[in-house]
Amino acid sequence: MSFETISVVGLGYIGLPTAAMFASRKKKVIGVDVNQYAVETINRGEIHIVEPDLDMLVSAAVQQGYLKAVTTPEPADAFLIAVPTPFLPIENESEIPKPDLGYIEAASKAIAPVLKKGDLVILESTSPVGATEQMAEWLNEARPDLTFPQTHGENAEVNIAHCPERVLPGHVVTELVQNDRVIGGMSKRCSERSVELYKTFVMGECVITNARTAEMAKLTENSSRDVQIAFANELSMICDELDINVWELISLANRHPRVDILQPGPGVGGHCIAVDPWFIVSKTPQKAKIIHTARKVNDHKPVWVVEKVKVAIAEFLNKNPMKTAKDITIACYGLAFKPDIDDLRESPALDITKTIAEFHAGKVLAIEPNISSLSHENITLVTIDESLTKTDIHVMLVDHKQFKKIKVKDDFIIDAKGIWK
Ligand code: SAJ
To answer: How far apart are CA 328 and CA 363, in angstroms?
Structure first.
């Protein structure tokens, strides 16, 4: 049975581009989101997030009548769930964060009333191992009149799979088409039907496995990157103590044919790499030792950068005994969670800037070429030129392309990205 109508639940950074991609292949797509503002924006043919080329795709899809957004699910042949999977709040620093499946539960309960025999339900959200089986249980509880793969395997009336998204923010539109897809069906039939669905637009290979392995594959990809970044961040702190330029060191070590070290930075941000490893650690805390340590190393890096700023303030005052901390202007270059994007969510650069603004008596400037306003009373958003004339201590946090051309002559530079030193 082919897929005439496809519903995408959750119209964020993954769901909206996926919905637009199906619509661009002339499928009837119903996007579902609890956010009324997002729904209205999309129905006008506009977008509520920033992602290159997505605006054109959504505008065309809405204009041609292939994409509409709603707040309450409607019947469809396939449902893709792309809702957030954050972790639950922790009481203290030593606690291991646990995943919050609340959005998946709410999405399952929302689509259950419109599910029918022959439908396919795909969980795309990055999820802890076992989440797809849990989702299947929620659907089964809500619709005891239908059969599901956990009890009826190949003969189930509703098919279920986990097909994690793996696209890089900033490159979503191309990566959705080109990347290989891991397809983890709860039965062989679930996988085969999912492949058929994704082949609507995916040019990469659709590789079949089971749901648990697919869940773990996604977590492994992001944990692998987190561990590698932690290695670079640990090196940066070791090298600072030993008076060695870590960027020179890494470029030398990377000349070895089997060494490929990533780059240190102010910490790991975004909603994926700093979150997903915890889904492994919370499930198997006794075994996930390197993954756990990497998280701690990366989470400590912003604290370390703030300490360097405090040392620079002390050195500045030592060199300028007539001045007080109130006279010192500190500029933070970059607030986004990584270069050349406008996304400030879970950004170590933003956290560092806010922390400095909390303790520092003098002015704190922020230079973020990708945003036009910032609402924080102690931080002033300025241009590069303004900052270069007013600043005493320069803190380089994000290697946006605009910053690479700057020549900073002052003595007081903390360069977390190694672009000025
Ligand atoms: N970072 C470093 N040093 C590096 C590389 C990155 O400090 O050498 C930092 C970045 O500045 C940023 C953080 O790591 O703060 C994460 O950035 P990223 O570019 O590594 O990854 P994300 O979070 O934008 O996207 C990741 C991708 N996963 C992998 O590359 C394995 C993407 O493919 C996933 O789809 C996405 O997570 C996701 O949604 O899970």
So the answer is: 7
Write out the two tokens for 262: 């990533």
> What domains can be seen in the chain, in order of their start residue?
5-204 (3.40.50.720), 254-415 (3.40.50.720)
Q: CA-to-CA distance for 297 and 219, rounded, in angstroms?
A: 18
Residue entry with tokens 């659907």: 139
Rounded alpha-carbon distances, angstroms, from residue 75 to 8, 95, 119, 411, 415: 11, 42, 9, 64, 53
Q: Among candidates 200, 188, 270, which has minimal Cα distance to 229?
A: 270
Listed in order, strand segments (DSSP E) in 344-405 are 364-367, 379-381, 393-396
Q: Which atom of ligand 1 is nearest to the CA of 13?
A: 39
Query: pTM for the whole thing?
Result: 0.94
d(CA 179, CA 173): 10
Q: Is 332 tagged catalytic? A: no
Residue 7 CB neighbours (<10 A):
25
pLDDT by residue (tens digit) across 375-397? 888 999 999 999 999 999 999 99
Residue 94 has pLDDT above 70, yes or no: yes
For ligand 1, the distance from its centroid to the CA atom of residue 310, given in whole angstroms, is 28
Atom of ligand 1 nearest to the CA of 229: 3
Backbone angles phi, psi at 70, to 5 degrees: -140, 165
Instruction: Tell me the CA end-to-end span of the chain in Å, nearest whole number.
Output: 60
Catalytic, 404? Answer no
Contact call for residues 218 and 209 (beta carbons, < 8 A)? no
**Tokens describing residue 350:** 């933003």
DSSP 314: H
Nearest CA residue ID for atom 10, ligand 1: 338
Q: Residue with the nearest Cα to atom 25 of ligand 1?
A: 168
Give the Cα separation of 48 and 42 in Å (integer).
8
Atom of ligand 1 lying closest to residue 221 CA: 31
Of residues 27, 163, 206, 218, which has the active-site annotation? 218
Note the pLDDT tens digit of each residue in 203-233: 999 999 999 999 999 999 999 999 999 999 9
